[in-house]
Amino acid sequence: MIYMIEDTINGILMGSIYGLTALGLTIIFGVLKVINFAHGSLLMVGMYAAYWAVALTGLHPYLTLVLVVPVMFVFGYYLQDIVIQPIFRAEKNVREPITVIIVTTGVWYILDNLTLLVFGPHYRTIQVNPLRGRMLEIGGLMISVPKLWGFVSAMVAAAAVYVFLQRTRMGRAIRATSLDRDAASLMGINPYKVYNVAFGIGTATAGIAAVTLVPFYNVFPTVGVLFDIKGFIIVVLGGLGSIGGAILGGIIIGLIESVGPQFMTATWTEAIVYGLFLLVLFVKPAGLFGVKYDW
Fold it and tell me: Do 177 and 189 touch, CB atoms closer than 8 A?
């Protein structure tokens, strides 16, 4: 029984990190109305940035947030501004330009292969890591400390994004643009600047997820693919454009992956995840926590 409780807790913790990786994806979709296929690669870039920040400066892994998050925000801001924005301008009469999907797929391949070229295929881990393998014992239960910090980071990041969108001038501009780009433009909002900021926030959120993963997860050029697939499943499961849905969807996936192997093989566990994904698409395409409006 105690093992079941441990698996449930650790499933919730890991699921919250999955939700954090999907949070940036759902922010970008909620505003730009396009799916960013390069999101996993942006997570990978964040993981390499955190790894090298620790390796070169000796910082505590979580202190790299002060370096990684601003760098990732700027990277996402200008990636949208330089690479993606010209497509929106060229197809300004199209609500959801499909060409952006092709471009983000190209960015995915460029980032992954460029990283492979520069750093090689080697798996990298932080050598001096005070968090790797650390467990917290509570009443006989063993809880992973890095995953616990990941859970806290996910909750804080989701709350911060929600408050930003609800309480700040730029947040209200982002919500207005997500609902009706043309109407927002008539109110004096520059939708292209809003897109840049939203993409930057989504990328910075991926940077937070990257920092929480580095203490216990290997860093390699294609690591983003693993989380990219889960991110898409979580976004569809939780609801497109839903912040809370991203976190809750991630926790559901984490629970299935953690508790499922107690009753079946890992292969069947993966099958259940994809089966749930297809079921939601058929029964409730808006997602379990989808709402009428994007925000």
Answer: yes
* Chain position carrying tokens 């409780």: 5
Q: How far is CA 68 from CA 42, 55, 175, 275, in A?
A: 12, 13, 26, 35
Is residue 144 a part of any domain in this protein? yes
Residue 295 lies in a domain: no
What's the N-to-C CA distance of the chain in angstroms?
40
Domain-embedded: residue 257? yes
Residue 232 CB neighbours (<10 A): 18
Residue 207 lies in a domain: yes
Tens digit of each residue's pLDDT, the chain (295 residues): 677 888 888 899 999 999 999 998 888 888 877 788 899 999 999 999 999 999 888 888 889 999 999 999 999 999 999 998 888 887 776 666 678 888 999 999 999 999 999 999 889 888 766 777 678 777 777 888 888 999 999 999 999 999 998 889 998 998 888 888 888 888 888 988 999 999 999 999 999 999 999 988 899 999 998 888 888 889 888 887 788 888 999 999 999 988 887 787 777 888 888 888 888 888 887 777 765 544 4
User: CATH code at 137?
Assistant: 1.10.3470
The total number of structural domains that make up the chain? 1
Domain that holds residue 144: 2-283
